Amino acid sequence: MKDNAYDVIVIGLGGMGSAAAYHLARRGTRVLGLEKFTPAHDRGSSHGGSRIIRQSYFEDPAYVPLLLRAYELWEELAGLSGLEVYEMTGGLFIGPPECLTVAGSLRAAREWSLAHEVFDAPEIRRRFPTFTPGADDVAVYEAKAGFARPEMTVQAHIDLAAREGATLRFGEEVTGWSDGPRGVTVTTGSGTYTAGQLVICPGAWAPELLTDLGIPITIERQVLYWLDPAGGIGPFEDHPIYIDENANGQQIYGFPAIDGPTGGVKTAFFRKGQVCTPDTIDRTVRAGEVDEMRDRVTQLLPALSGPAVHTATCMYSNTPDEHFVITRPHDYDNVTVACGFSGHGFKFVPVVGEVLADLATTGATAHPIGLFDPRRLVTT
Ligand SMILES: Cc1cc2nc3c(=O)[nH]c(=O)nc-3n(C[C@H](O)[C@H](O)[C@H](O)COP(=O)(O)OP(=O)(O)OC[C@H]3O[C@@H](n4cnc5c(N)ncnc54)[C@H](O)[C@@H]3O)c2cc1C
């Protein structure tokens, strides 16, 4: 579509959109990226300093090949940007042997021959003295787990996309888009743009930007807590990431101390939030919420008994089965959509960028994305 001003317009330059803009631009595509907020902002889903990355994927072993490619691209991104966008710390996935966190991680590790070890409770305590697991708990330990830095990652993709020639416009909200035989038209408060292809990465704004697609997505408020460890951050400096599941199936997760001596140690509940919208989310974190977090995490890590030095809110975009949506919707000729990352998308950011660039430029991808077809969610 050479008569259009751009080859591809990307709506939303958060985690996924910034990666898509970069992967498109580096293929020589004329890219326009449109973002309603500032670069690497904290109003969506890609902020808060750290995101767990891991490969023994309890959610479904089908994610593993994407993770193997994502890890290659994480390394490449670190090299190209010169930034420590991720760090390997090792990861512990803890709980009763039959729980999803443990059994699911083990299943993925075995199916894909991923390096891992299994520890019983005394072994966990011996190797990682900060932890006090239940007597019957076990842990899958994965050395190739760690964390990515979301704001740094988004900024790195934005900078690299711009370096490759992408036009990126911030503070510009998309108010409408349409698809036609000659390409797409996108309207913002400042103008109207045309392109051959459209890639939409709306995060928590999916329900409003994708109204006609009928993809069921629920937005959920999540809280992040940085707790001050009694006795200082020392034992948490060289510390694995962890996900812990209790007998009720409730999961918490956390990170090493990466924010300096007074920055606290970050922990959170996985999937425990109120339904909201980006407009109605309550950004205030209450003392009762901090108490609930501390009561739960100190069962596993007793040293995290101090006050919260910082809290933040963030949004999950949940599909009913908590698997992603990555698709070229059938009723459109020139549109690619990536949404519904259901609270576990960040570790895939670089490979989703590559997949979206494949789909927008060739209409197909060699990556296995069958699990993310939204037709699975249609109930008739
Ligand atoms: C608390 C929390 C913890 C998490 N922990 C992990 C973890 O440990 N590991 C992991 O892998 N994942 C984790 N996730 C999930 C992961 O962070 C998300 O899946 C991922 O960041 C989603 O990226 P996105 O691009 O879809 O959304 P976003 O990064 O929010 O990007 C969407 C962008 O679209 C823009 N936009 C929306 N509407 C418009 C419009 N009309 N015009 C222009 N721009 C628009 C928004 O401003 C935003 O920048 C976590 C998420 C949260 C909230």
Automatic annotation (TrEMBL):
<dbReference type="Pfam" id="PF01266">
    <property type="entry name" value="DAO"/>
</dbReference>
<dbReference type="GO" id="GO:0050660">
    <property type="term" value="F:flavin adenine dinucleotide binding"/>
</dbReference>
<keyword id="KW-0285">Flavoprotein</keyword>
<protein>
    <submittedName>
        <fullName>N-methyltryptophan oxidase</fullName>
    </submittedName>
</protein>
<keyword id="KW-0274">FAD</keyword>
<dbReference type="GO" id="GO:0008115">
    <property type="term" value="F:sarcosine oxidase activity"/>
</dbReference>
<dbReference type="InterPro" id="IPR006076">
    <property type="entry name" value="FAD-dep_OxRdtase"/>
</dbReference>
<dbReference type="InterPro" id="IPR036188">
    <property type="entry name" value="FAD/NAD-bd_sf"/>
</dbReference>
<dbReference type="InterPro" id="IPR045170">
    <property type="entry name" value="MTOX"/>
</dbReference>
<dbReference type="InterPro" id="IPR002204">
    <property type="entry name" value="3-OH-isobutyrate_DH-rel_CS"/>
</dbReference>
<keyword id="KW-0560">Oxidoreductase</keyword>
<feature type="domain" description="FAD dependent oxidoreductase">
    <location>
        <begin position="7"/>
        <end position="359"/>
    </location>
</feature>
